[in-house]
Write a structure and sequence with these properties.
With 139 residues, the chain is mainly alpha-helical. 61% of the residues lie in helices and 0% in strands. Residues 1-107 form the Calponin-homology (CH) domain.
């Protein structure tokens, strides 16, 4: 469990409470972890607010379900997934689900082909502007 804690804390740059299970049961940290591994894999995360510091069970369950859906997208095998009930009831074991998720590496922010494609689009736009300007000067 300490290795799991260290992995989550280092990835998310947070300090988790002593009781790891209770800090994961509302699904907030888990959803942030999934988004760290694959950005936007969890589109909506219910978080506590100062006005309502504790999430309802329905919102906790929705967060946990969103996390499990993100795990599927990331490529965690279905056999490694647990039920939302196990997470909400703090019966989450560090293996194999969270170990699978925490060992995934986040994709690089920019792929080289993204950069090349973006550059080509900008160059094409500049060429088209030059041609349009040159054509208007001739007429």
């Amino acid at each position: 469990m300490e290795q799991l804690r260290d992995s989550i804390e280092s990835r998310l740059k947070v300090v988790l409470p002593e009781d790891l299970g209770s800090s994961l049961m509302d699904g907030v940290v888990l959803c942030h972890l999934a988004n760290h591994i694959r950005p936007r894999s969890v589109a909506s995360i219910h978080v506590p607010s100062p006005a309502v510091p504790k999430l309802s069970m329905a919102k906790c369950r929705r967060n946990v379900e969103n996390f499990l859906d993100a795990c599927r997208k990331i490529g965690v095998p279905e056999s490694s997934l647990c039920s939302p009930y196990d997470i909400i009831q703090c019966r989450l074991q560090p293996t194999p689900l969270l170990v699978s998720v925490t060992t995934q590496t986040p994709p690089p922010a920019w792929q080289i082909w993204d950069l090349i494609g973006s550059s080509l689009v900008h160059i094409l736009c500049l060429v088209l502007l030059f041609v349009a300007y040159s054509w208007t000067e001739l007429t």
